[in-house]
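Render Acetamidase/formamidase family protein in 3D.
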Amino acid sequence: MAKKIFEIDLTKKMHEQKYPGHNRWHPDIPAAFSVEPGESFKMECLDWTDGQISNNDDPTDIKNVNLNRVHVLSGPVYVNGVEPGDLLVVDILDIGTFSAHEWGFNGIFAKENGGSFLVDHYPNAAKSIWDFEGIYATSRHVPNVKFAGIIHPGLIGVAPSQEMLDEWNRREKALVDTNPNRVPALANLPDPDSCVLGTLKGADFDRVAKEGARTVPPRENGGNCDIKNLSKGSRIYFPVFVDGAKLSVGDLHFSQGDGEITFCGGIEMPGWIKLKVNVIKGGMDKYKIKRNPAFQPGPVMPHYNEYLVFEGISVNEFSGDQTYLDANTAYRNACLNAIEFLKSCGYTGEQAYMLLGSAPVQGNVAGIVDVPNACCTVSLPKEIFLNNIIPKLDE
């Protein structure tokens, strides 16, 4: 049986927990627990905003969410005997919801506070609450849909070395410096406001708070990759950069569409996860897994077989300018095309947008060699709709 090593109280913020987690990446954040290779254990997690979002119909909390607080993570977990150059092997044994909190949320972030993938089309905050019944989710805010979730950690990763942390901060600051007044910002730089750093105190807390990397993007350590197929049964191979690896996890999602396009994405929730760790000594060199993690997906997937697929190409939707094999533009157009279709089915643009971020929608790069247009696709499982949405021939 997996022992519980990280327990949370849903009525308390992360810094108030018996074992406070963290919301920055830094090698000097102390481990909360240690485990042995081959050991399995259970960790509980708060939702990524640290409980800022309420189960109501008012999106004001989404509009005003304190993004300096996110993501609150459970951990770090020190794995005994693991060293830089090894591969940390992490099996996701199981993952689930709390019986006392069987709901989650999705939201569109306001342009002036984070924004989203389609921020220039949907600049205002919106929120949808999703209720869980077993493996299914429904929402009073996005009616006439019901789908099976793929519960997964949006964020799981290991600690960076000091050299790696310094490189992250250097390259991201260089990007921000190209357009420092952009809204939303090009990157989120270190900010000591609202830091949670485990048990650190005093001068050590102040130093790490000034240097710690924000948990917003995915990086070489894994982190906030938001991969919906990284669910139970999956095995992850993490390059190790510090002694003990210092594994952390959080940002649990009940379900998510590929791309997590609303940014307050997927269906965010608190919950629990059971993990097992092992080590491949010298595995980074042996298997050449050095720059980013690799993983094997688990066998658990919703059984949807019929899709309505929307294409997008890399032509700017505002100016009509041709771009060169730009998958970002192509995927944006595929999403916009799907939203326009869903509007014809009676949904508002905001409802359709949040549905694409919440349901197990498939996103693909279909072609990225046929100059000048990349082609991306968004696939809607037609079985999730309680009404038939397929276009009908004239009768």
